[in-house]
Structures are given as C-alpha cells and as structure tokens.
Amino acid sequence: MHAAMLRSRAALRVARPAQRAFSSKTIFPDEPTKPSVHTDAVPGPASKAASAEIDKLQDPRTHVIVCDYAKSKGNYLVDADGNQLLDVFQQISSIAIGYNVPQLLELGRSDEFITAALNRPALGSFPPVQWAEWLNTGLMTVAPKGLDKLVTTLCGSSANETAFKAAFMAYRQRERGSRDAPFTQEELDSCMVNQKPGTPQLSVLSFKSGFHGRLFGSLSATRSKAIHKIDIPAFDWPVAPYPTLQYPLNEHVKENEAEEARCLQEYEQILIENKKTRPIAAVIIEPILSEGGDRHASGNFYRQLRLIAKKHGAFFIVDEVQTGVGATGTFWAHEKWGLQDGEEPDFVTFSKKMQQAGIFHKSESRPNQPYRNYNTWMGDPMRTLQAREIIRVIKEFNLVEHTRQTGDVLTKALTDVFSRHQNLVSNHRGQDVATFQAFDFATPAARDAFVGKMRANGVQIGGCGDMSVRLRPTLTFGEEQVNILAETMDKVLKQI
To answer: Are residues 197 and 287 in the same domain?
Structure first.
C-alpha cells in the first residue's frame, strides 16, 4: 500500500502544469471560483437547526455556522445550508493549505495512516518503530534555527504549558549548578504539599493583550480578554506592557521607537524587581499578539526582548501557535527579527496550521530525569503524519514564498479599498507579514456588523480584540481570492 500511495502522489505531482504560475487551482482543480449564498441570512435555517440539536448536549453559543466539511474545497467552506463561503479565517488560522487537500486525502487512505490512527499509543512509553523516521522526515525538517529537540503535545495550550514546565525545570537545574545534582529529601517532601523548596516561587512573564491558551497554567499568562479568565484562580505572574504603536509602522518610525523603548525599560525593570520575590524563569511572547487585537511591533523590539531576557537569566519562549507554518511569509514569524547566532529563542511552540502541536527546544531544557515532562499520549502519530504531508506540500509548491507574494497583492488591494472608507476603517497593519493583516473599526458594534455582513455576502472573516478584524487565509490564497475579498469588502463598507 505504501508503494501504491507514493505512485499516486507522484501522479498528482506530474499532473501539475509545468509552466503555470501557482494558484489554488494547481492543487484544487475543482475549487469554486466565487462565493455563493442562497439563504436570507448566514447562518441559515439548517445551520440554526443543527446548532439547536447540539444545544441539547453542548453549549452552542460560540457557533458561527455549522459546516459541511465533505463539500468544502480549498479556500471555500460550505455550511449546512449549502452556502459556499470564501474562508479567510480558516478555523482560527488552523488550516494551512485548504479543505480536502488531495495529498492529505491520499495519505488518509494509506495503511500507514490508518494504522497510526487506530492504534494510538502512549508515545512516551510505547512509540511506534517509525517514530524517529516520522519526526526526522517531517517536523524536524522545519525546526527553528538552534533548536534540535522536540516534544509533541496535544494542542497549543498544552504546548505552552509544556514549555513552561521545561523552563522551570531547567531554571532549577541551573540553580543547583549541575544537571545531575540530586534532589534533596526536603525538596521531594515539600513539593507534595505545594511548599518551598520543592515547589519554588518562580513565574512566567507575559505581555498585556497576549494570548497563550485556556488551560490552567497557560491561562495565567493570557492577558487578552477578561471573559477568558474571570472566576478562575491564577498564578501571581507578572505582566509587562506591549507597545501601543501607530500604523502603518513605516510611517511612524520615530514615535514608535520611543514607545518601544519605554516598554522595554519597564519590561527590564519587572525582571529585575522580581528576582528577590518571584524570579522570572521564562518570558513568553507572540510574534503578533493575535487574539488581543493583532498588535504588531518592530523586529528590533522583539530582538531586545530576547536579549534582555537572556541578560537576566530568563528562558525565552516564542509562541508561534498562530503565526507559524508560513503564515507571515517566512516559515516562522520570528525569522524576521534579525536574531544573530546565539540569540535564537529557547523554545518555539506550535500547533494550528501544523495540526500536530509541540515545542522545539534545546538540549539544556531536557529534564534531568524521565517522567517529568510526560503524559499518556504526548501528541498523536496520526497528526504527526498529517504535519509531515502538510510540510511536503508547502515545500513542493513553494507556498511560503507564494504567501509572501500574495501579501504584496493583498496590501495593494486593501490600501485601495480603505482609501475610499477612511471614515470607517483605520490602522491597517501587517503589510510586512504577508497575508497576516488586520484593521480596526471605531466601535465593537461596527466591527461586528462588518463581519456579519461579510458572511452574508459570502466571505467568512474573523474578528479579534475589541474592534479589530484579522485575515487568516490559507497558504494557497492568491490573487484571485484577493480580488473577491477586496470587492466584497468595498461593497459591505458602502452598506455600513
């Protein structure tokens, strides 16, 4: 079956037109050419009925639409009513290539994938014989510079929590002076009642408006919206300011440099002040603060964050759960920061577009004993195979570069649209990060009205923060889809 699968994939690749410039049709020949909405509203009656049925079992209040994934294709999402929507939100930035990618469907039919899916192992104790091969031919081929170790996890939140644990353990190993230093009996006894010295008073520093997940530890580092955190006990961890910049960044360089310098000074002071009370073992930051309103800063700001953390002995975690896997025109968004040799992050976390979640890290942050950063599943071999095939398709069709080029087309199209609606839309940003662009409305109500009208006109788009709209299309999103998006946006803005 494996040989047959390889022949089938080879046939798919041979069928690709040799001289044709890339478009999503290269991978999805039968992808729709435009949106199609035939209900009076979106969600329509079938979506609403499906949500009502789900309501008997689960809370449906966050439903946007109920989807028919079997009919969805490429950049187009089909809902329960048969409406065909151009999807520039892609499951909250989680679909890398599109719906029903032929190469992924072929993988799903293989014996290799079926065996991995139906015999899910406790990876930390009973890995499959192919595990090293699957990692070396997939995830490790895109490992960030300087990070040659990997832990697979279940989701983005658990990836960040795994990085927290690894940072805490490495920090304490460094304090003891040796990786091999044994635990004292006092440490072993006191940790069982959550007391020092076995349970140290260490902390993770995060930034205002950042989002790092909704599990217990990751939620303590999340700072985007109160609704995420209200009523939940939290660790007393510090928060640093994130610069409030003027957009576009290249038109406000002097003012933004001053604001970034102010935030860097306060950030360093927090690191210093916490050394005596609750030392900061790790700093975590998103390359773009996505859920908190798609907030951007300069590459130099991020480089200084890393250098200051290193100066004060804090491990540096880059949360690429939403920004990774080519979405910003480089495979990892932090590649744009100008980091030099020796300045690379200590951890990079990933999930979403990769489908498999996990952390890349260095040798020094591997725990000194087994079972310390461990759980039953530690990820999923099925998702690891899926990630490998996604990476292969991205490389074969040069989709990271395609996304970078599409970003230029998108910037031009949106600039043109916004020039006619300056009374409604402001702060267009992300022009230097490919299709990872965003813009603001004056009020939450105006933003929500825009998102709803876009959906009714056949484009699924997403909000973030209080008043922002963000674009999260696939890596196959191209000029054809940009034109549809821009025309629809212009039409909807005229209606608001």
So the answer is: yes
Q: Is residue 9 classed as helix, strand or coil in its secondary structure?
A: helix
Q: How far apart are CA 472 and CA 474, in angstroms?
A: 7
Contact predicate 409/485, CB 8 Å: no
Q: Report angle CA 271, 272, 275 to the nearest 5 degrees.
A: 90
Check: pTM over 0.85? Answer yes or no: yes
Which residue range forms the structural domain that includes residue 434? 35-104+398-495
* Total residue count of the chain as it appears in this document: 496
Long-range CB pairs of 249-258 (<8 Å, 24+ gap) are 249/296, 249/298, 249/429, 249/432, 250/431, 250/432, 256/297, 256/298, 257/298
pLDDT digits (tens, 9 = 90+) for 20-73: 489 999 999 999 999 999 999 999 999 999 999 999 999 999 999 999 999 999
Three-state secondary-structure class, residue 37 = coil
Statement to judge: residues 371 and 233 lie in one domain: yes
Q: Which residues are catalytic?
A: 211, 319, 352, 376
Tell me which H or E stretch contains 415: helix 399-419
Domain boundary among 339, 366, 395: 395
HSE of 157, CA atoms in CB hemisphere, 13 A: 10
User: What spatial distance separates the first Cα and last Cα of the chain, rounded to whole Å?
Assistant: 55
Task: Give CA–CA dist 195/405, Å, rounded.
Answer: 54
Q: Both 81 and 197 in a single domain?
A: no
Q: For residue 117, what is the DSSP state? A: H
